[in-house]
């Protein structure tokens, strides 16, 4: 795999695993609450640690399965994440007919830690899937997830204060899920 393809894949993984961060940033921006950099740093420090756990777990397991099996495991994990994200946002609402509303409050250290863990569960699975497909992706994947985590919260907060927030906020989960599925299919090609 050439460096450009690797660069694209790692950035797609970073972006797709953090589009939910954009939604959080938008939610705070819509309420005119600024998302401070130090809170963003805490959230993504937790994301860094959880992604690291995921890639090392995936790297360990990849020693015991073939590269073809690893590609299918990676496909299954990443595709499942994408489908789960789309279902969580759209399917659940269609089946049960209601959407939960989250009360937004000002940001402090407790909210930052809570958001960090809440937004980072997918990082474990994303890191796992990326490491299973290629154990050389460990550090680039973790760094990509962390950097894109910071960028997407900041960008979402800026967009939330802007005019296109309703459009992106409504479709960010769909885009995130489809990016995961796209990366999943690339793993088996």
UniProtKB/TrEMBL annotation:
Keywords associated with the record: Cell membrane, Membrane, Transmembrane, Transmembrane helix
Source organism, top-level taxon: Bacteria
InterPro entries to which the protein is assigned, alphabetical: Mntp/YtaF (IPR003810)
Name of the protein: Sporulation protein YtaF
Keyword Membrane (UniProt): yes
Transmembrane segments: 6-30, 37-58, 70-91, 112-131, 137-156, 168-188
